[in-house]
Design a protein that fits this description.
Blueprint: E1 7-10, E2 17-22, H1 27-33, E3 39-43, H2 46-50
Antiparallel strand pairs: 1-2, 2-3
């Protein structure tokens, strides 16, 4: 089984903390995706979901 790592970052829209959760995939798909894994970024602060809903846009590093 190939390990796919979670990532942390900052939302470029609201400067809130965000986290990337990789999608569960087969080893073959993980190899094909390489350094650009499928998955989803999400806000860590529930207020960003309720009070200020917006798409997560990771800030450039």
């Amino acid at each position: 089984m190939i390990k796919r790592f979670q990532k942390t970052g900052t939302c470029g829209t609201c400067s809130g903390a965000i986290h990337f959760y990789p999608a569960p995939v087969t080893d073959e798909q993980a190899i094909a995706e390489g350094d650009n894994p499928s998955g989803q970024w999400t806000h860590l602060d529930p207020a960003d979901w309720v009070d200020n809903p917006h798409p997560v846009e990771p800030a450039e590093e």
